[in-house]
Design a protein that fits this description.
The protein is α/β, with parallel strands linked by helices and 223 residues long. 41% of the residues lie in helices and 21% in strands. The chain has two domains: 2-120, Response regulator (Rossmann fold), CATH 3.40.50; 125-219, Winged helix-like DNA-binding domain superfamily/Winged helix DNA-binding domain (Arc Repressor Mutant, subunit A). α2 packs parallel to α3 and α6 (151-162) packs across α8. The longest helix has 16 residues, at 105-120. 35% of the residues are buried.
Length: 223
């Protein structure tokens, strides 16, 4: 899942990015409201975390302009103020939730998972044939057998199973699974797909990860 963190306190922003990265999120970070809007216009995020008080453009304005431009990702606002009027202003601007500083990281993480479920109107547990991916517990099983994945392998599988049946181009996969500062090899997606195939498909009669020539990859059942 790809997340944007927009927070002018660099220590807070970088700490959140590090902790979310440890929970398998692909995270982009910026420190001004102007940059936050640019990021939201340039990429498709699964959720955005925006501080209200930011230089260049406040978080409420960022949300309003993003909504006016048709961006419908869930938005969690961070605020140092707990007045009812402040919360109402945020929700009226188009935010989906808010969190008052200081907060526990565990609460932020739980709220992000809840926003993701709410936006897709589904649980965070996905199945395809005998493959089960639980995005809350970060567990993967096939035929009842647990499969151990690295953080990046899980992020890739999660994106594919959330879009099962849809062919995903390399550009789409890069955008959703890797953050902007990724500087790995150009064939890294192919490397991870091969690794996933070995863990998910090897030894099973029915293959679930398929290559669509000149188009990308898809997770689906085939007769």
């Amino acid at each position: 899942m790809r997340v944007l963190i927009a927070e002018d306190d660099r220590l807070t922003a970088d700490t959140l990015a590090k902790r979310l990265g440890e929970e398998h999120y692909a995270v982009d970070v910026c420190y001004t409201g102007t940059d936050a809007l640019d990021y939201l216009m340039a990429a498709a995020y699964d959720v955005a975390v925006l501080d209200i008080m930011m230089p260049g453009m406040d978080g409420l304005t960022v949300v309003r302009r993003a909504r006016e431009a048709g961006r419908d990702m869930p938005v969690l606002l961070l605020t140092a103020r707990n007045a009812v009027s402040d919360r109402v202003d945020g929700l009226n601007a188009g935010a989906d939730d808010y969190l008052v500083k200081p907060f526990a990281f565990e609460e932020l993480s739980a709220r992000l998972r809840a926003l993701s479920r709410r936006s897709k109107q589904t649980s965070n547990c996905f199945t395809l044939a005998d493959l089960t991916v639980d995005c809350d517990s970060r567990s993967v099983t096939r035929g009842g057998v647990h499969i151990a994945l690295t953080s990046r392998e899980f992020a890739l599988l999660e994106y594919m199973i959330r879009n099962k049946g849809h062919v995903l181009s390399r550009a789409q996969i890069t955008e959703h699974v890797w953050s902007y500062d990724y500087e790995g090899a150009s064939n890294m997606i192919d490397v991870y797909i091969r690794s996933l195939r070995k863990k998910i498909d090897e030894g099973y009669g029915q293959k679930l990860i398929h290559t669509v020539r000149y188009a990308g990859y898809v997770l689906r059942e085939e007769a």
